């Protein structure tokens, strides 16, 4: 139900008509792939590997003059990682380590400040920076606990209460715009780093369950294709 609501929001966001004038306004939609991991002590302690998933969203592109654009976006971005996690019981006592996936799903709101290379042809390169705020939608740990002699349901845990509800960060990136009739096709690559710690319950020097370690931050590399009307 939540995924369907997000899709409807994206379509409504992209349905706003473009207007002509000194400032060109172009609504658009985008889809691509994000590769996420952690930056900090947890990635070292738990030996996490990247998690790759589909990302999608919508945006409004405000063209100001010939070279500058402001582009607010709303994008679903899956984050987290795969690796070895310490499994704990209901009172927090460690039961052992197991391979699993920590899934952190966010609704992200970047504000791109984009510089387009002058030219006027069909192909226009661009670079940008973007502050962002992300709302945590869901946080789950899925692990294979069979080697610990535990039932399969013991490897499924909702850990949303251990993850901060807001994640502020920043992005750098660039891409290419292709003029296609009245629309603009965009290929985009960006790197996003969270500024704050992911977890509410941090512990110095190690990891307990998925409570995390000091200074863990989200980091994401994404490649998307978008179309602005």
Query: Mind summarizing the main beta sheet?
Result: 8 strands, antiparallel, barrel
Number of strands: 9
Number of domains: 1
Strand content: over 45%
Structural class: mainly beta
> Level of helix content?
under 10%
Total number of helices: 2
Shape-level CATH architecture: Beta Barrel
Anisotropy-based shape: elongated
CATH topology: Porin
Instruction: From the alpha carbons, calculate the radius of gyration and give it in angstroms.
Output: 20 Å
Spatial arrangement of strands, main beta sheet: 1-2-3-4-5-7-8-9
Strand-and-helix sequence, N→C? HEHEEEEEEEE
CATH class: Mainly Beta
Average pLDDT taken over every residue:
78
Low-confidence stretches: 5-22, 203-209
Distance between the termini: 28 Å
Which helices and strands appear, and what pairs or packs with what?
Elements: H1 2-14, E1 23-39, H2 41-45, E2 51-64, E3 68-88, E4 94-116, E5 123-143, E6 156-158, E7 166-180, E8 183-194, E9 217-228
